[in-house]
Amino acid sequence: MPAREQAAATPRVVVLEDVGQGYSVAAALATGGFDVVVVGTAARAWRAIARSAPALVVLDARTSDAAIRLLARLRLVESSIPALVVCARGEFHVVAALEAGAADCVSPPYVAAELNARARALLRRAYGPTHWQPMPIRIGRLVVCPLSREASRDGVPVRLSPKEHGLLLALLESPGRAVGRRELLARVWPERAVPNGRTVDMHIAWLRQKIEVDHRRPQIIRTVQAVGYLIAPPRE
Asked: d(Cα 211, Cα 142) in Å, to the nearest integer?
């Protein structure tokens, strides 16, 4: 096992998860500015770690004990790489992950912002407070900074409300996937007791006016009929 790398400006993160389970841990971390290497089996994760030690390991243990066994094996030869484990609900599962060598655990339900915050906290703890800053996300001519909540288009700052910024990040967390209105409400308006899809539509319209070249013909945030909204790089 190679010596641990110092965390770089864009830290490399090896993620072990079953992408067929739905909400993607790797996609959520990618929106936070991480250089994500996603693998589907413990054997592939071991090879990815051995080939070039990452700054962080994130293991999804919700559907299999293979992630816990991999972490225990890793700790026998490498104790310094921080590991974040996504656990199923229940105290026993969290205890097993911590006993195997996890630095932190997170259990559903969670949002991408929490996952990224926990990952950043582990990096600061392992490498120091100034070693890493999250990289901005670029979508065509739009640049979004998840941590500072700033955005710009063609270098000109774009002032977004907290809800508009939350919607933008929620869509960026699921690149290439249509996100339904109810899901967006749950992520951006968790305080709402009664979901109302019109609230999402209204804020999307305001957001488009700020980030699209022509909000009447949107190219970044696209409507998917009968589903919701999808974010993708603008068409040429």
From this structure: 7
pTM: 0.60
Q: Which residues of 40-54 are buried (b: 16+ CB within 10 A; e: fewer)?
A: eebeebbebbeeebb
Please give the structure tokens belonging to residue 186.
């749950």
Alpha helices in the chain (DSSP H): 25-30, 42-51, 66-77, 91-100, 112-127, 162-172, 181-188, 197-211
CATH of 12-127, one of 3.10.580.10, 3.40.630.10, 3.40.50.2300, 3.30.710.10: 3.40.50.2300
**Ranges of the chain with pLDDT below 50:** 2-8, 236
- pLDDT tens by residue, 53-85: 899 999 999 888 899 999 999 999 888 899 999
> Do 178 and 195 meet the contact criterion of CB atoms below 8 Å apart?
no
Pick the CATH number of 137-231 from 3.30.70.930, 1.10.10.10, 3.30.70.260, 1.20.1270.60: 1.10.10.10
**In a 10 Å sphere around its CB, with 0-12 CB exposed, 13-18 middle and 19+ buried, how is residue 59 labelled?**
buried
